[in-house]
Every structure is written in structure tokens, then in C-alpha cells.
Write a structure and sequence with these properties.
Layout (H helix, E strand, L loop, with lengths): L2 H41 L7 H12 L13
């Protein structure tokens, strides 16, 4: 390989790693924001006309029929 191709490949690998890191940061932030929003909805700090429409599906997604916490995995 020529030095130019090696440099280009190295940059492409670094950009790929940066994309993965960015997606992980976004996922972490989204998780924190969701937790904060659910906490505010629980305490009544936020009153929304559709509070139940937002809260119920989200809580059911993370809890099983018997109320135990479940992990959601891809099938």
C-alpha cells in the first residue's frame, strides 16, 4: 500500500470509531433524559393531558406482565 492509502484507511477507521462513540453518547443521553422525564411525570411536576398515553406504554415496555423488570432484547 502506498502511504496515502494507508493514511486514508487509518482516517476511515478513526471516523468509524468516532461514529460508534457518538452513537453511544447519544444513547446514554437519551436514556438519562427518558429517566428524568419519567421521574417528572411520576412526581406530577409535569402535567400533560396525555400523561397516561406517554407513561403507560413506556413503563410497560420495561416491565413484564407481573410487574418484574425485564430486559428487552432483539429477537
Amino acid at each position: 500500500m502506498t502511504p496515502r492509502r494507508t493514511t486514508r484507511r487509518r482516517l476511515e477507521e478513526q471516523e468509524g470509531l468516532q461514529e460508534v462513540e457518538n452513537r453511544e453518547r447519544i444513547a446514554d443521553f437519551s436514556s438519562l433524559m427518558l429517566t428524568a422525564l419519567l421521574r417528572l411525570l411520576d412526581t406530577g411536576a409535569i402535567e400533560l393531558p396525555a400523561k397516561d398515553a406517554i407513561y403507560c406504554p413506556l413503563s410497560q415496555r420495561h416491565r413484564g406482565e407481573d410487574g418484574d423488570a425485564e430486559e428487552q432484547g432483539a429477537d
